[in-house]
Design brief:
Length: 195
Amino acid sequence: MSVSELTLLVLRLGFLLVLWLFIFGIVYALRSDLFGQRARKMQADAGVATGLPAVFPSGAPVSFTQPPLAAASASAMTEQLTARPSPAPSGAPEKANAQNASRLVITSGPKAGTEFPLTGDSITIGRSGDSSLVIRDDYTSTHHARLMLWHDEWMIQDLDSTNGTFLAGNRLAVPTPVPLNTPVKIGATSFELRR
């Protein structure tokens, strides 16, 4: 085998390797777009009841379930929420709590007008079929956000979503109390907690 034939063989093999790297990159990107980010290994959240029955306007029963919380996320959330926020100024909207908020109302998006009762169980929101509130649009992550009671106040937590969770137009970085009648935007869907 001459030097030019050897060079040609090395170039062919190099081109083939680069071609396969591109193919694997495309397959990985498509998998992420279609199925979302790889889920982290989850562990059950102790002390939280599961199952939140609800009924859609069509009359079909829906079951809300409490997905497990990642151990690292649980400790981080505990640290973030341990210090109770200071009371709201008198002009600020009233924070939603277990006594004054009884329903979640979707105000915009494909499910606009749908209402869900708030019973005290956590509600997960995302594209995944195991989410309590399933939102299927291109801007919602597989496990996008969680609405939960913490010290008797409703809090919204973004679950490291790609496009973020917005409360009154502000992107959330930490679990945040949700005021009554204040829009929460996830993807193309907005909802409010109401009496």
